[in-house]
Structure formats: C-alpha cells, structure tokens
Write a structure and sequence with these properties.
This protein is of the alpha/beta class. The chain folds into two domains: about 250 residues, Aspartate Aminotransferase, domain 2, CATH 3.40.640.10; about 130 residues, Aspartate Aminotransferase, domain 1 (Alpha-Beta Complex). Helices cover about 40% and strands about 15% of the residues. Helix 4 packs across helix 9 and helix 11 packs parallel to helix 14. The chain is globular and about 75 Å long. The structure holds pyridoxal-5'-phosphate.
C-alpha cells in the first residue's frame, strides 16, 4: 500500500513503506535472509559498492538488506527524519553514532543520569582515543552551555533519564547548540516518536533502543539511528562499512511486526503507569515517585512543552533507604519480574543505588515498568510487597 505522511499514525504504522498490492501480494513482507546479493554485471556490482553502498539495490548484508530497509523507512518516517540505520542493539546504535560524531581531541557534554553503559563509554572507553566528556544537570540549560569548551562537538541528551526521570528543555538546548555549531544527539527510547519528536525540536540525531517499545514483546535486541541523509550516509560509509553490527534480517522482520502495534500498546502502558504511580505516591512507605506523567512531577512545564504523553516506566524512593528492605520489597513482587529491560508486555522491577548530581549521597531508586497486565492486579502486587519497606 502506498502510504505517506498524509495518513494518520496508526495507518502509517500498519502500512508505510510496503509495496502496492499486486495479485497475490504477501500481506507480511518476506524475510531476506541473505548475506549477499548478486548483480547481472560486474560493473553494476562495483557501481553499487562504491557509489551507493547503503542501497537499494543491496550487495552485502553487513551494510544493508531489504528486510532492514523496510524497517528503516518506517522508523525514519515515524520520527520525521530523512533516513535511518538499524543495529544489533540500542548500545550499538548509540556507540556507533557517537563515534561517527567525534574524533580525538573533541569534547562531549552529557546529561547526568544517562543510561549507564553510555556513561561508561564516555568516561571509561572513549578517553583512550582522546575524547573527553563533561556531565551536567540536564534540567538546567544554562549549566549545559556553561560546560561548552572550544572543542565541544556534541551534546548528548536523554529526556527523561531512564532511572532518575529528569527532562531537558529540548528546543532550547537544540537552538543554543545550533548557534554554537554543536551537534545534538538524544536517546529517545523512553519516548518513541509517538510521544516526542526530537528532530522537529531541532535535534540532529535520534537514537533508540528498539529492544523496548518498538519490539514490545521482549524477544529481540535492536537499535536505530535516525538523522539527515547526510549524517546517515556518512555513518554508512564509515562505521557501518568498517564495523557492521547491523540488525539481522529475522530480527528486522520481528521488529517490523512489533512496530505495527506500537500505537495500541503505548497508551495502555501510559494509562497503567499513571494509575499505578498516582496510587504509589499516596502510600506511607514512599518518599517520592519520579514519574513524568504525574501532575505533581517537578518538571511538569518541560513535560508539557516537549512531550505528548508519558509511557510505562517510572521510579520511586522509599522513606526507609535500607538495602535489605529494598531487596525484600523487590523479591516479594509476583507480577513484576526482576529484570533490567522494559517496553515489553510484562511488568518489571529493578533496584539501583545511584547518586544524582544534586544528591548528597547515593539512594535506592526502585524502577517499575508497567506492562500490559491489568492495573489493579499490579497495584495489588505492589500493595502486597510494600510492608517490606516499613
Ligand atoms: C534508555 C536506554 N537507552 C539505551 C539502552 C540500550 O539498549 P540495548 O539494550 O538495546 O542495547 C537501554 C537499555 O536498557 C536503555 O534503557
């Protein structure tokens, strides 16, 4: 079906990028489970390799493949970007996108509370190639720009941060970065393009862990980078050509399937999380609930300015910050599985001992992901475990 931006988002999720029906068109596109593709002439192959490495047509699946191309078209369209590349995981996508943007001697500004392995990449790994990073309180736009140095090449955002749930004023950061010629990149995994459109707000590069909401079924890992054609072409000719690390065709096919139902699943996660978080903040054992969907949320103005809605993930701190009690609470839960991911059908809990930049000491953040179960069952499960925190 020929679909473009004139259709609503649900129609686009169902059909965008797929071929016009001919007699006997398969309703589900086939999987191109190929490592390579042959050409009728040697000249044609060489022309494709050197002048059009990202395809179509495609010549080698380390660089591109039709099953990935369909998914990439869909994700770029949803995000409002020119082009997309899908990778074997969210971390692959983020690492490769950052490496594409910096070289030895460059400086990166990063928001405090970004996903842990991204922090590790920027503090423990890229310094060995001469790239340095400064971490800032992302809630404070002035603090972000106070950290700018003559060699600052990139500002890296994650809004909200996925453990402490702090937002950034994205249009303001993008505007000030553009004035200074600094590129901006965001991890928008929490949001998905249904809840936030970073490119429309002036961000240059959007990364996703598609392992989460896009997949929706906890059965694959995947990542995506969406940006201008120029940035994606550069990524293909460099990091993709040299490192590969793209998604496999079967995973791309599964992810295309998951993406079709994103707009049905996401409001359910949001509704449940708002309900559960609203109930939780009334409980005597709870000190504070960090959920961007709550009216009591500290950065309500930034939430309303930058997002269409919240999704299913939030954290809370107990009044009693005792480790054993936090572990006991988590262990008593029956419906929330103890696991580190989120975005699937199933509810999850994870406890992390962290020190946000404005805290005097680390505290236990208990993060809950609300899956697709009945909200009242999830509340009953938490109510049953809460006595552990007394
Ligand atoms: C906010 C965020 N970004 C990125 C990632 C990395 O994604 P992946 O696990 O697909 O590599 C995760 C994974 O949990 C995440 O929570």
């Amino acid at each position: 079906m020929a679909t473009d931006g004139c259709y609503g988002v649900n129609t686009q999720l169902a059909h965008f990028g797929e071929s016009c029906p001919a007699d006997g068109t398969p309703v589900v596109p086939p999987i191109y489970q190929n490592s390579l593709f042959t050409f009728p002439t040697m000249e044609g192959l060489l022309e494709n390799m050197w002048n059009n490495p990202g395809g179509p047509p495609h010549h080698y699946s380390r660089v591109s493949n039709p099953s990935l191309e369909l998914l990439e078209k869909k994700l770029a369209n949803l995000e409002g970007g020119d082009a997309c590349k899908v990778f074997a995981s969210g971390m692959t996508a983020i690492t490769i996108a950052i490496m594409n943007q910096v070289k030895g001697g460059d400086h990166v500004i990063v928001v405090d509370g970004c996903y842990g392995p991204v922090k590790a990449l920027l503090t423990g790994y890229l310094p060995k190639y001469g790239v340095e990073a400064t971490f800032v309180d992302g809630r404070d736009v002035d603090a972000i720009f106070a950290a700018v140095k003559p060699n600052t090449k990139l500002i890296y955002l994650e809004s909200p941060t996925s453990l402490t749930f702090r937002l950034q004023d994205i249009p303001e950061v993008a505007k000030r970065a553009k004035e200074r010629g600094i590129r901006t990149m965001i991890d928008a995994t929490y949001n998905t393009p249904l809840m936030m459109k970073p490119l429309e707000m002036g961000i240059d590069i959007v990364c996703h862990s598609c392992t989460k909401y896009f997949s929706g079924h906890s059965d694959l890992t995947a990542g995506a980078v969406i940006a201008s054609q120029e940035i994606i072409d550069n990524l293909v000719r460099n990091e993709v050509l040299m490192m590969g690390a793209l998604l496999g065709p079967f995973q791309a096919w599964l992810l295309t399937r998951g993406t079709r139902t994103l707009a049905v699943r996401l409001p359910q996660h949001e509704k449940t999380a708002n309900h559960v978080a609203g109930w939780l903040e009334q409980q005597p054992e709870v000190k504070v609930v960090h959920h961007i969907g709550l009216e009591s949320y500290a950065q309500r103005d930034v939430f309303l300015k930058t997002m269409k809605g919240a999704t299913g993930l939030f954290s809370f701190e107990a009044k009693d910050d005792d480790r054993a009690k936090v572990m006991d609470f988590c262990n008593r839960l029956q419906l929330f599985g103890r696991g580190i991911s989120w975005g699937g059908f199933e509810s999850l809990v994870v406890a992390s001992h962290v020190q946000p930049c404005d805290y005097d000491a680390p505290r236990w953040f208990i993060r809950l992901f609300c899956g697709l179960e009945d909200p009242e069952d999830l509340i009953a499960d938490i109510a049953n475990a809460l006595p552990a925190l007394r």
